[in-house]
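Sanity check record (used in CI):
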Amino acid sequence: MTARAPGRTPQGTDGARNLNPERERAILSAVLSILAEVGYDRMSMDEVARRARASKATIYRRWTGKAEMVAAAMHGLVVEHQPLPDTGTLRGDLVAALSVFCRIYERKHSIVLGLLPAIRSDPALGRLLHRHMLESGRGEADELVERARTRGEPVGADRVAAAVEVTKALLWHRLLLTGEALDDEFVVRTVDEILLPLLRTD
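Expected output for TetR/AcrR family transcriptional regulator:
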């Protein structure tokens, strides 16, 4: 498995709007830094351009506005990671994958908190982030399950969507509501008590 190109939204965009990957990465990195520091409402395109050493014209050629750019940055934060290991079992693969995504969600925590007021006031931002949240992680989960099926493990491909949805709900519940750690104990318990029983067909 390879990480997707930085910042590409799940649906992709017109090729004419694509940037050099290094330039795009610099812009989206600046977006994430500013979001963590001042939040969405106080983030300006001028400051993004200054930190990324890019012109506003370059930014607007790639994204239509601030909401689309922030959604792309959030999406890139999820999909940019090292290939998930093949441990030889579905359980091992799920533990390894969930550990990776726990670290990613921890990085997103402060940014998401800063976005919550803006989501309520900016419907376009809310729709873009909702679409991103629904789709991120599904490709990786599909691959882990297909790998398990190839090994002969009794798992149902039709249960992947539910497993991804439940996992995200658990992660955000801890991050935004309870404040409990996304530690190894949480990972193992989630895999053994929720994900494996949900995915297995035996």
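The chain has nine helices and no strands. If this sentence no longer matches the regenerated tokens, the check is flagged for review.
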